[in-house]
Design a protein that fits this description.
Length: 267
Amino acid sequence: MDGRVALVTGAARGIGAATVLALVDDGWSVLAVDVAEDNPDLPYAMGSRDELEAVVAEGNRHAGDPGRVRAFVADVRDPAAVDAAVLAAEHIWGGLDAAVAVAGVIAGGTPLWQMPAVRQQAVLDIDLGGVVSLARAAVPALLRRPEPRSGRFLAVASAAATRGLPMLAAYCAAKAGVTGLIRALAVELGSTGVTANAVSPGSTATSILDESARIYGLADAKAFAAQQPMRRLLDPAEVAAVLAFLAGPGGSGMTGAVVPVDGGLGL
């Protein structure tokens, strides 16, 4: 995949960081995008600028090239900032071949009607609105590549898209929205050479799962492993490996798919 260019949101840690590294290992150049600051409407820490820079440094070490991965600070809730990130990728490397919407947050702990409105809005605006904003900015860039194209728009949904999780209604709604968006984009993109697909992770060892454990009053996120037939948590790299596959030539026949990477949670 040398010469191919990807943009990944939520890149400072978790699945986003793992996706940056997986793509770099496959030969991609990557713009690693993250808000890189805390959100006052959410009760846990977001990825930091230091974490984002560490991912960039590690990616460049993997590549043996100090310019293969670049950092870009942007809030996915801000369409103008997302537009700027896409334009930056095109300016640095001459185009864009894949956009991967990973940025996500979680909040809950009460029934929907008791959830603070600002927290509910943060979940909807980041988990669904951020994917919409990236699609609106990135798809035209993917289509700017000359034919025959092999562009990829990818998103991270969740097993929560199809499971009713108590005290996480806004999160479930947002992730279900992501799957609907991907299916519609796949049809709209049709025969353009650009595909749209998503992965649907189960319980994965990330900060979101740590916050989920706090929401449910669990001592440790490892307790979620019992829900999955594999009886373990997923590693972010396992989800990233599927995203990298979908971004590459092996995913050429897939569009509109929501691929479970869930340790069997959805069974």
